[in-house]
From TrEMBL:
Native organism taxonomy: Bacteria, Pseudomonadati, Verrucomicrobiota, Verrucomicrobiia, Verrucomicrobiales
One protein family per Pfam: HTH_20
Presence of the UniProt keyword Zinc in the record: no
Keyword list, A-Z: DNA-binding, Transcription, Transcription regulation
Keyword Metal-binding: no
SUPFAM superfamilies reported in the protein's UniProt record: Winged helix' DNA-binding domain
Protein name per the record: Helix-turn-helix transcriptional regulator
GO MF annotations, alphabetized: DNA binding; DNA-binding transcription factor activity
Domain HTH arsR-type stretches: 1-95
Length: 104
């Protein structure tokens, strides 16, 4: 992931509703959540939720899959991991914390 892609992801996650949606999806696991269930759990109007999911999808953080009439949102853990990796790529400028999990 490069700086532009990371900046886009972080910009989309910089909105409290989108961050809440993404965190909820991450907590739900790899199977994601149907849009209707996500709306019910977060108590967000359908049009508002649709807008925020669209923004997360454009950034690559969420993918939607349709199964019949059900539209499911799936968090993209690989994109999340790439963003984290980019942010800590040069952590501690060569100090020992690079050899172990960062406890900065």
């Amino acid at each position: 992931m490069n700086i532009e892609e990371t900046a886009l992801c972080m910009a989309e996650l910089g909105h409290k509703t989108r961050l809440a949606v993404f965190r909820h999806l991450v907590q739900a696991g790899k199977t994601g959540l149907p849009v209707g269930e996500l709306q019910k759990q977060l108590e967000i109007p359908a049009s508002t939720l649709s807008h925020h999911i669209s923004r997360l999808t454009r950034a690559g953080l969420v993918v939607q899959e349709r199964n019949g009439t059900t539209l499911t949102c799936l968090p993209q853990y690989q994109v999340l991991q790439e963003m984290i990796d980019f942010l800590v790529d040069q952590c501690c400028s060569g100090e020992p914390c690079l050899d172990t999990p960062c406890d900065c």
